[in-house]
Write a structure and sequence with these properties.
This protein is α/β, with parallel strands linked by helices. 37% of the residues lie in helices and 10% in strands.
Amino acid sequence: MSIASLAGRLLLVRHAESVWNAEGRWQGQADPALSPRGRQQARALAARLAGEAVEVVVASDLARAAETAQIAASALGLVARLDPRLREHDVGAWSGLTHAEIAARWPEDYARFRAGDAELRPGGGESRHTLAARVARAAAEIAVEHRGRRVVVVSHAGWIRALVPGLVLGNAELWRFGDAPPGDARTGAGEPERV
């Protein structure tokens, strides 16, 4: 069974705002908590999900995604299942730094990353090629495990973009798998990386 079989039943959600999102810092697999604004976003997300007939909530085990999922799942009378396969792109030593700091310390690597180099390991972390393989495996396994059920996956910008190239979601935004990508300026090439 492929992930495409979940079209219409899979909702992808980017975690709510973390304290590092608020500061403009790359997170990768670092584990900053939600900001107060992020907790408000998670509660608003729960209200939006109320009409979606959600049966399963699965989330990255990183705090910002886990807490987003737990707030939403609790409001739906569900328990979020945490899954480390849904973690963000590992950006190694770039975690905790701003775009400007990364560009100043690693100008060539930063330029390669912005150009979409799939083999670059940002900050010594995980290449986009490796991330894409991890995401594809996890998504396929979720599709098999939850066949026929309405599933919310709470993850991260890089994870979501690896599954649906070009899709950019803001904090606590959701997208139904199989729908056309949102037709706004945040999708497509040239968009700033949100990690």
